[in-house]
Amino acid sequence: MSHKQETIALHAGQNKIETAPSRAVAVHRTTAYNFRDAEHAANLFGLKELGYIYTRLQNPTQNALEERVAALDGGAAALALASGTSAVFYSIINVARAGDEIVSSKYLYGGTHTMFAEILPTLGITVRLVDPLDLGELENAINGKTRAIFIETIGNPTLIVPDFEAIGEVAARHRLPVIADATFTTPILLRPLDHGVDIALYSLTKWYGGHGTGIGGAVVDSGRFNWDDPKFTNFVEPDGGYHGLRYAYDLGDLSPLAYILRMRLVPLRNLGAAIAPDNAWIFLQGIETLPLRMTRHSENGMAVAEYLSRHPQVEWVWYPGLKDHPAHDNAAKYLKNGFGGMIAFGIAGGADAGARFINGLELFSHVANVGDAKSLAIHPATTTHSQLTEDDQRAAGLPPELVRLSIGLEAPEDIIADLETGFAAAKL
Ligand SMILES: *Cc1c(COP(=O)(O)O)cnc(C)c1O
User: Fold this and answer.
1) Which of 9-18, 132-141, 415-424 shows the lowest per-residue confidence on average (mean pLDDT)?
2) Which of 112, 226, 326, 368 qualifies as a FRET site for 155, CA 20 to 30 Å off?
3) pTM of this prediction?
4) Pocket of ligand 1 contains residue 106 by CB under 6 Å
5) Average pLDDT of 38-42?
6) Which residues share a beta bridge with 105?
């Protein structure tokens, strides 16, 4: 059939179902998918068959990313999302409703802290913040309304590493899932699901992507947690938005997918934090070198931490790989492939010296990000937390002399030489 150019411009050259066997994962820049026939469409909408309907729900490039992320952690399934922030938010609202509570580590990424302290309470979800190294405090915060325990694998800003297996035991006693933000470790340094964690989540924006080129997040579920308990209302009650499905009872062989499937069908489908296919592709590309990069980030991180701990202008260093770090025993027990690229240290001379130090750096980028291939530095007291008084900064665990470094992949000699330039500038 011969078509007019307007029609050709839309249809020529594309096979509707099969794509070429390209070796690299293709970017599927599509919003919707061809149904084979009316029955196929009906089956997809009726959940009788899983498949592609609309890219807010699912996309082949996104699915390739999800399979790769789930496989690296040994998880049953993963869901990729628009950001690490949406991964944190969905991981909570998938298990907790108004009236429910979460027990969380108080050592949190800044945005997560704001979400837990300011946003979740407006939705009726209370978060109790505890010291994750104090198991008694953590267990005492659990009550009949608790629906999950939330931790970070390396917590901000102290870089503490919890005892994951001990927390897993506390959680199991109370029939609660442990959710861990594992952004700072990635599955290369730690596979949280092997150590008592039920759900791991990531800001893919950071080391996972690794090059500072896209925003994305992912949630991985072990598939082992049993949601068949009346307190998990989201899983035991029929879902009015999806054919009355009860995720804890009705999935049969797919029951290990309950948590991720619900997250796809409820928060993702209806609140909409979908990852762009282009960003999913960027993260797939980044993951190809993740094991190589994490090893190098850790080697460079260790070299810089040792250099800093010997430096006369340094008052203290927080790095989980150093023996004097308060959580070094946990770090040594769980992080078998290195301690990562994040370092915090106190500079002699306080906030003013911190600002001069940052201004003196040339190789380091002065940005509000972590986990780039390039080395990054920031002085929280004069930037991200400058609106707080010194007392409030200290209460947030941020003394004025704290400098935060995200160590990149440059040659360690060059990184250290640049820090030396910063220290020279910090001296009056
Ligand atoms: C960056 C970050 C987040 C938020 O991720 P975005 O992709 O920026 O939304 C959450 N947790 C940790 C530990 C992070 O570093």
Assistant:
1) 9-18
2) 226
3) 0.95
4) no
5) 96
6) 130
